[in-house]
Structure formats: C-alpha cells, structure tokens
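Lecture notes, continued. The same structure-token format from the folding unit now serves as the input rather than the output. Read the line below as a description of shape only.
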C-alpha cells in the first residue's frame, strides 16, 4: 500500500528564490497543504539569507522540517505561532538547492508543475536563459520542456528592460508571469490579507482551490466591508 502511494504521488514543486517576499511563499505552501496537495520544496541559497532577514529563521538542510514548521506558523506581521501547521507537513519533501541529481531535476519525475514564489530577477533571468545553475532553475527548465504549469511570481520594482525581456521570454515559453502585486478590492484589513491575495492568485494560476481571499463578485464597495 505504501509503495502504491509513492507511485501515485504527484507533487507541486515550490521554488523559493532570494527575492524579498518569504511570506508569499509561506502562504502558497499553506494553501497547497490545505488543499491536500503534495509539495516538493526547493529553497535557494540566496533565499536563506532573505528568510533569515525577514523572519529570523535559519533554514538548515539537516533540520528543514523544524525550520519549515516555524516558518509556516509565522504570520506576515512577524508573529510566531499564528498558524497551526504541525500536522500538515507529512507530504512535504525537501530537496537541497545544490542537488542537481534530485528527483524533480528529471522530466520523468511525476510533478504536477512548479510555482516559483517569490521569484527574483536573477531567477527569472536564469530560467529564461536556460542556465540551470541550481536545482530551482533546473526544475523550472524541466517544467517548461515537459509543458507543465510554471508560475513565476516576480517580486521586484522597478523593472528594467532586460528583466522585462526575460519575462516576455518566459511568457512565450508557456509560463505564467505573475507579479507579486496585492490588490485592495478584496477588503484587506491586515498585511496578511495582502500577502494571501498574491498567494491566492498564484494558486489560481495553478488551478488549486483555496479560500485565501474574497473574490470580486461585481458589487461596488465590497472592499470597504468588514465581513
């Protein structure tokens, strides 16, 4: 029975690059797990520095499960233990960024697709140019060549011409380029609401159901309601 479950497992690969915006990644991960999705996680070397800076959490290969639990439990406002994630990490698999022989590095690995969130301009360039300098870029390239969904949540401003060209290249290759741009019509009253809106749009692009934000229903004034 266990071997059959392993054979049928088809995870979403979540790649976290070094751009600011680790709360976006945490919200996407919580959303995937809440939807009952399997997750393969790749945390780039640069993103560890960002995560340490934004949350105070040191993400360690040997203790990734404990560090991931602390990260996902943390609210976007920095408060620890905001979310209960203790029992939701059973179907998460972690791959080190330098492991180019990892499962998702091959097109034969049965992944549903990949979500890069947040995506730095360096990650955008690397994927657009097919550099595959680390596992995150390699998996993104594999996702494109296998014609699987790839969502790239770009977190940078302003954008220069070269990055815009790279984003067009990704779009033409079949990726969804999704700038991390919060909207306010959903009635945000807290920083977590703005983070969850972006995360929700990432999950929308991947076709994963969620309840992270209130959807537009055509009623003006919805963003000012407190319900």
């Amino acid at each position: 029975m266990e071997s059959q479950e392993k054979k049928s497992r088809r995870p979403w690969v979540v790649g976290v690059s070094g751009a600011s915006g680790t709360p976006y990644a945490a919200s996407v991960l919580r959303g995937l797990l809440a939807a009952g999705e399997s997750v393969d996680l790749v945390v780039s070397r640069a993103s560890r520095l960002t995560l340490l800076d934004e949350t105070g959490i040191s993400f360690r290969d040997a203790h990734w499960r404990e560090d991931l639990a602390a990260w996902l439990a943390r609210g976007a406002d920095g408060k620890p233990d905001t979310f209960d994630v203790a029992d939701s990490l059973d179907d998460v698999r972690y791959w080190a960024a330098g492991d180019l022989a990892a499962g998702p590095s091959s097109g034969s690995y049965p992944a549903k697709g990949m979500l890069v969130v947040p995506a730095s301009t360096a990650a955008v360039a690397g994927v657009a140019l097919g550099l595959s300098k680390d596992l995150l870029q390699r998996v993104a390239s594999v996702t494109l060549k296998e014609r699987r969904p790839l969502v790239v949540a770009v977190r940078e401003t302003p954008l220069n011409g070269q990055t815009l060209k790279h984003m067009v290249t990704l779009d033409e290759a079949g990726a969804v380029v999704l700038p991390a741009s919060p909207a306010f019509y959903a009635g945000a009253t807290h920083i977590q609401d703005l983070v969850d809106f972006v995360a929700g749009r990432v999950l929308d692009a991947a076709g994963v159901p969620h309840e992270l934000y209130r959807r537009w229903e055509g009623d003006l004034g919805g963003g000012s309601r407190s319900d």
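Point for the exam: Strands lie at 12-16, 39-43, 92-96, 113-119, 150-154, 176-177.
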